[in-house]
Write a structure and sequence with these properties.
Length: 122
């Protein structure tokens, strides 16, 4: 994921808390959801680069996530914002009601991911 669009430092802290030792894959666009829905990765973290995502200037585009959410849900995975809220695609081209994007391969793993992000997010 592009460095300007995600907080890699926080993601590293979350990964350490969850016991993840593998190096992260830096993927952008819908590729990340394809890899996850095939079972080739378990977690996606796209965390805001700063505490106030509106002040950081970057808000996620719906076209970067809408189809991927469908793929993940059909594969048994979960996608939410960093607070565990469903992504809200009903406000135009941007995800203005969400902060960050998390995806995981199972509901159980997603609960752990949301909790860990809550401890380490800016």
């Amino acid at each position: 994921v592009e460095a300007a669009h995600s907080n890699h430092g926080t993601a590293a802290k979350v990964a350490a808390e969850l016991g993840i030792t593998a190096q992260p894959l830096r993927l952008d666009s819908q590729v990340k959801y394809g890899v996850m829905s095939r079972g080739e990765a378990d977690i996606l973290m796209r965390l805001p680069a700063s505490k106030g995502h509106m002040s950081s200037g970057y808000i996620e585009n719906i076209w970067d996530h809408a189809a991927g959410v469908l793929l993940m849900e059909e594969a048994g995975g979960v996608v939410s914002d960093m607070y565990g809220k469903d992504l809200d695609f009903s406000h135009g081209a941007k995800l203005i009601k969400n902060r960050g994007v998390l995806a995981s391969s199972s509901p159980e793993l997603h609960a752990k991911l949301v909790e860990a992000v809550g401890k380490h997010a800016d």
